[in-house]
Structures are given as C-alpha cells and as structure tokens.
Amino acid sequence: MEEAVVTNELTKVYANGVQALKKVSLSIRRGELFTLLGPNGAGKTTFLRIISTQLMPTSGEAFVFGYNVVDEPERVRKRIAVVPQDAATYGILTPWEYAYFFARLRDMSSEKAKVAAERALKAVGLWRFRNRPCSTLSGGERKRAIIASALASEADIFMLDEPTSGLDAVARRAVWAVLREMVKEGKTILLTTHIMEEAEMVSDRLAIINKGEVVKVGSPEEIKKMRKERFRVVINGEFMVDSNFDFVKLGDRLIVYTKNEDEALSLVKKVLKSGGRAETAPITLEDVFVKLVGGYNENS
User: Fold this and answer.
1) pLDDT for the residue numbered 15
2) Does domain 3-224 fall into CATH 3.40.470.10?
3) 73 compared with 247, residue with greater pLDDT
4) C-alpha separations of 117 from 93, 131, 157, 193, 284 in Å
5) Range(s) for CATH 3.40.50.300 in the chain?
6) pTM confidence score
7) pLDDT at 173
8) Closest Cα partner for 234 from 269, 285, 280?
9) Which SS3 state, helix, strand or coil, does residue 201 take?
10) How far is CA 250 from CA 87, 154, 241, in A?
11) What is the pairing mode between strands 33-37 and 188-193?
12) Mind listing the pLDDT tens digit for each residue in 172-198?
C-alpha cells in the first residue's frame, strides 16, 4: 500500500527551548484514517503544521506522497487540505459559498467547482442548508461546512486538527460519520484529537503521542491488547481490593482491572454480596492510554 505520509526522526525545538517533537518516525498509509492521540501540549498540532508546510522542523525529514515538505512545499500543498483547530465560519457566508470558493481557489473551473461543492455538501449532509448563512447553523453544522470546504478541494489527504473540539455528542458523531464515509471513498485522513472515544471509533490506526514522543502505534484493538487486563470493574462505594489487581481510586469509586471476563464477573459477585454496587465491561482505549502515558498511580 502506498504511503501518504512518512516522517523520519522529525524533531522540533522552539526558540524558547521547548522540544515539541522528539525524533518522531511515522508512516501513514494511503486510504486510511490515522489519528494522533495525545493530551494537550503533546505535539500533535506541531506535527500537523510541519506536515502541512506551515512550520519548519528543527531536524529530521517529512514526506507527503514522496515530496519533501521542506524542499518541495508547493508540490505538497497541491495534494493536501487542512482544517485547523481554530477554523471558524464567517456568519454571512453560506455552506455553498464555502465549498464552491474553496474549490475555485484550487484552480478548478466554475463548472467543476460547482460539481465538487455539491458532492462535498451532500457528503456532509448539508445540501439542504447550502444557501443558509452559517450564522443560522448549529455548531456541528458549521464544523461540517468547514469540512465540506476542504472536501470540495478534492485533495489527496485531509489534515484535521481537533475537528470535533467543543461539539456535543450528537454533532461529534455526525462529523465521525462524515470522516468514515470519506475513508470509504478512498480518501486519506490525518486527524489529531485528545478525545479517547473519537480515536477509538474512527481510527484505522493511531499513534499515541506524549511530550513530543510516539509511545505506541497500531489499530485501536492492537493498542488495547498491549494491556494484559482485558476487563474492568467499576465499584461504587468502599470495597477491599486484592493487591493482585491493578486498580485506581476515583473518589468514592474504584476501577479494577481483570485479566478476563470470568475474573471480572467473580469480582462483581463479591461486591454485590457485600452490599455494594458494581458493573463490568471490556477495557477502553482510554484505560490503555492512561496506563501508557501516566496520570494516576495504580494500586493506590
């Protein structure tokens, strides 16, 4: 499979001495949705800005479809579309105007731009709202209008920085549906997020990044298998947990990790017999993420 993005020991040190990226080497395949997952300040946006030719690396190399982002920025820009984290719509413009004029900015003819704009707006579910000012749309609809403008460019790879930040659950899932549909049509997407559920739901593969370093790379399922415990039990109230278990205390609740479902169900029964409340479920990507990057002390 052709690689859309390749980086070799990509490093960025800002003038104030902050090292935002530390020898990041990644390979992103064409036709996949690849997510950079990490906390705020992890280096996700810095990576995206370098790949999109907006920021110079301190050292290392980065290529987009074989073009060096430093030596051949114009060739790279013709292949990409970027949606920054702080992208916002102008209230007086309509979704149609966004999609159409962004297509025209990519040197499309008027007729081709009209076709591209219609296709993009239908893909994100905004065709019926195409002539409404963006100021009259919901936050999720405005975000989809921005994504439609990028989609209308017919770029080979779309780079989206925290595309659902600030959206409610319904709007967020509407954006997820659009992204997965884009991948189904063969588009390549590089996404950054700090939302665990988002990374787990939409990613073909992801890289966990923390303090400028890549911690793990793989599919969501592969990442989750990196933790030996496969289930967790959430206990409400006081309960004495065996020291053989990994667990974390969250106020009046305990999250206890078990190796399998039978072990989890046995623990739930013990809690119920003691008069407490408990429920079990498979571990999530967030459970593995916190284990990998830190953030709490287990067995404490």
Assistant:
1) 94
2) no
3) 73
4) 14, 12, 17, 27, 38
5) 3-224
6) 0.87
7) 87
8) 280
9) helix
10) 36, 47, 14
11) parallel
12) 888 888 889 889 988 899 999 999 999
